[in-house]
Amino acid sequence: MTKTQEPAVLPDQPTRLETDGPNAVGRMLGLLGDEWTLLIVQQSLRGIRRYGQLMDALPISNSTLTSRLAMLTREGMLERHVYQDKPVRAEYRPTPRTRSLWPVLLAIWEWERHWVPDHAERLPSMHHDTCDADFAPVLGCRSCGRPVAAREIEAEWGPSGSWPRSVPEAATRRRSDAEAVGGQSGLFPDTMTIFGNRWSSALLGAAFRGLSRFHEFESALGAPPTLVAERLKAFVAIGVLEPVESLGRADWVQYRLTEKGRAFFPVVATSLHWAEQWFHAPEGPALLQTHRTCGQDYVPFFACDRCGEPLAAADISIVPAGTAATTPDEESR
Ligand SMILES: [Zn+2]
Ligand SMILES: [Zn+2]
């Protein structure tokens, strides 16, 4: 006998958000701004279904894994499926909203591989089966098909957009902001400095939107000055922002995105797209993005840098260092 536990939300349909509540961006950051959640999602997309397998695959404690699986089930990201009654054994299957996260994980993988040198050797290669080559993903615009850079995308708030509504509510009440800095497992170190803190991701979003001065960050985010100072310092430390003194005004330091900072844009673009796909505010989208070059709505996609074809989850294999290609999860095809 098998049975499936009903999650609180329908996993294959967008969540309807409350009027004036957290918007799609806030909900996405609350969910994905957690290293363990990202790691469990990553394992799930590779076909890992069972508790014991997850314990083997990740440097995670029992209590943390139990709480994350409960949260992911409640949020409609995993479906708990009992496959044996005595004793009870369950597996956790990725739902469509989890399956559609693969571009975000691909973007994180590419960025960490390129910009976090100590980390690069621990990451597997990715193989594009269509052209039979190891590849890097290239971010493009689905409307015109061309590659895009961060500066070509114009973003403005949509009907449900504002800074206060975009700051995440934690999906799990688990730790202070200070503990989250730099990640816990060390598997996505720099990504977690940006993503794993409720103010960091908002601050990076502000930098992408052209804000550069301390007081601009402070007033846009409505964050306490000490927090803004601490987050700016952390971003400068990992080389995502650089301080630039304005001519003759030592007190007017500007913080500009570095090349490494701008290269994080594919993670931002794909995670924002996922957010708007799965979380619908009654007022409308949180963010409206336009590709300046073609003038159309910006929808991200990834192409293969070797053959130029659009990438699909089904055509990507993970190649662990020193071994032959293995095919990821059949079901995520
Ligand atoms: Zn375009
Ligand atoms: Zn290719």
UniProtKB/TrEMBL annotation:
This protein's record includes keyword Transcription: yes
Gene3D superfamilies: Winged helix-like DNA-binding domain superfamily/Winged helix DNA-binding domain
Alphabetized InterPro entries for the sequence: HTH_HxlR, WH-like_DNA-bd_sf, WH_DNA-bd_sf
Ranges of residues in domain HTH hxlR-type: 21-120, 185-283
SUPFAM superfamilies in the record: Winged helix' DNA-binding domain
Taxonomic superkingdom: Bacteria
GO molecular function, one term: DNA binding
The entry's keywords: DNA-binding, Transcription, Transcription regulation
Region Disordered: start-end pairs: 1-22
Name of the protein in its database record: Transcriptional regulator
Biological source species: Janibacter melonis
Native organism taxonomy: Bacteria, Bacillati, Actinomycetota, Actinomycetes, Micrococcales
